[in-house]
Amino acid sequence: MLELLKNWLVNTAAPVTLPLDDGLGEVIAMFRYDPVEDPELTSDESITNMGELRIRLISGSNLPAVDRSGTSDPYVVLQVNGEVVWKSDVIKETLNPKWNQQAILYVRNRNNTALTVEVFDWNKIQSNELL
Fold this sequence. Notes:
Elements: H1 2-6, E1 16-19, E2 26-35, E3 51-61, E4 74-80, E5 83-87, E6 98-107, E7 115-121, E8 129-130
Antiparallel strand pairs: 1-2, 2-3, 3-6, 4-5, 4-7, 7-8
Protein name: Tricalbin-2
Organism: Spiromyces aspiralis
């Protein structure tokens, strides 16, 4: 979360492009962070430190082809501090998926929240493969 905020990738007018590790394609998304009030604040938290993160997953491009057909069946997984909190739909047989989906995550402490965006290839029989 803090890296998204530091790099001005939150509350932008246009979508941002997130490159995948090792240059293996990219994901296009929008992030909106809105602080919210919580009456149960601890001493190290403040009103501006917690809120809702709205993620609009738009598309992916140039993803790796891992299926025999020369395509993939990609989907996105969002994790907060290592816990899976959201999964997108699987878009079958493409390297350039269009998701146009939205997720809303509650952030208790943006300074200590790690958001991980992972793209997987869905497989019917074998384990899903990290792209």
